[in-house]
Amino acid sequence: MNDTIVACSTARGKGAVAIIRLSGSEALPIAEKVFSPMPKEPMRLVRGVFSAEYFKDDGMCVFFRAPKSMTGEDSVEFYLHGGTALVDGAIRECILRGARIAGRGEFTKRAFLNGKMTLDACEGVIEMIDAESALAVRSGFGIMTGRLSEKADEMQTALTELIARIEVALDYPEEDLELITAEEAGKELVSLKRESEKLLRDSACAPIIRNGADIVIVGRVNAGKSSLMNALLGRDRAIVSDEEGTTRDVIEASFNYKDMKFNLFDTAGLRETMNAVEAEGIRRAEEVSGKCDLILFVTDDLSEKREFSAPHIRVLNKCDQRNYTAEEGDSVISALTGEGVGELKERIYSFFEEKGICDSLVVTNARQLDCLKRADDAISQALSAIKEATMDCAAQPLYTAWNALGEITGRTVAEEIVDTVFSRFCLGK
Asked: Could you tell me which of 274, 321, 264, 330 has the C-alpha nearest to residue 303?
């Protein structure tokens, strides 16, 4: 990591501003050769001229002294006009002056290797970049700012103390020491088990945070399913027609409400049919209904009720044409006029909000979840060993749990895993 790297940290293409980032021991000498006047103090943004071989640009520059930088190294950022040729030329100029092009995620990787960020915090950055909703952004920010690493550190510290006390009890049983008993060790493990189980339980909603909640719209033909989909989206996505069987396949579309993303699936009308294409559409509707997070059962018949394997809301449509005496739990709307659609959106949101999705520490990253699961399994093994045998049988699973928790933050992680994590990043991050 003694060399100096350079890359564009903004999206490639035409734009008002592009950020060119340098990091490494030669960042400042290189910057002094291409930008004038250089800031006299760190963290002071100065306007000046960037000079390349074939052009100049009016821009700004700021530098950071190690270790008070994002990477922990001397770093420089140029704020230039965002033309493709201009950005390429500026990067080329920095390379000619001694830098090399950065690898994917190399800036953030250097931050990790220099102790500026934990591995899970780095993954929180990419979660924020990939986020498709404000909820996903907030979840990624929580990981990036240390919510998960703090919890992992707490559990790892508790395991360290427990392992040490068990090792003392095993190695010095005859010494005049206050030795931990199997009962005491068991109580501490039960407490750790509760912590790991809660993290895993809260993280069951990770797919909803990352990808959005899947909501399937079902009902008889001409109940207004496609009209409801369009009303929820605020645009025409599904074809609406008085002709029965218009929707033959599952139609997908997404919308954001407040801080959540919702994926809608409009399905073929439920009825008996001899039409092979329509029958296949109904089969697909039943299939997607069995995998969703919530079902909107649309009907214009107050007496119609159905049982579903997933949670559902009965939506009484066409209230502009009918007078409903709704039962508790029903939503009354007119997909045609929009009446009640806002209230339905709020109810859908509340359904997920009540599950604690919006507030809990949720681990959305697959690698981190795997670490948690392995730690949880190892704690269970240690607990069983203490209950059924002797404390010496608990030592190895405790070390396994300790290492798994350390992998979350990167303190015990293998180099190839680190490389895999940062391969997901863009060049300038």
From this structure: 330
Give which of 394, 423, 428, 365 is closest to 152, Cα–Cα: 365
Q: Which CATH architecture has domain 122-205+365-410?
A: Up-down Bundle (1.20)
Query: Region 351-371: what's the mean pLDDT?
Result: 87
Domain ranges of the chain: 5-118, 122-205+365-410, 212-353
Amino acid letter, residue 139: S
Does domain 5-118 fall under CATH 3.30.1360.120? My reply is yes
The residue type found at 251 is I
- Bridge partners, 263 (sequence order): 214, 254
User: In CATH, what class is 212-353?
Assistant: alpha beta
Write down the pTM of the prediction: 0.81
Given a contact cutoff of 8 angstroms between Cβ atoms, the answer to whether 412 and 401 are in contact is no
For the segment 387-425, what is each residue's pLDDT rounded down to a tens digit?
Answer: 876 777 888 999 999 999 999 999 887 787 788 888 888
Compute the radius of gyration of the chain from its Cα atoms.
29
Q: Before 311, cis peptide (omega within 30)?
A: no
- Match 């909501």 to its residue by tokens: 215
Residue type, 97: R
360 sits in the region (left: phi over 0; alpha: psi -120 to 50; else beta) called beta
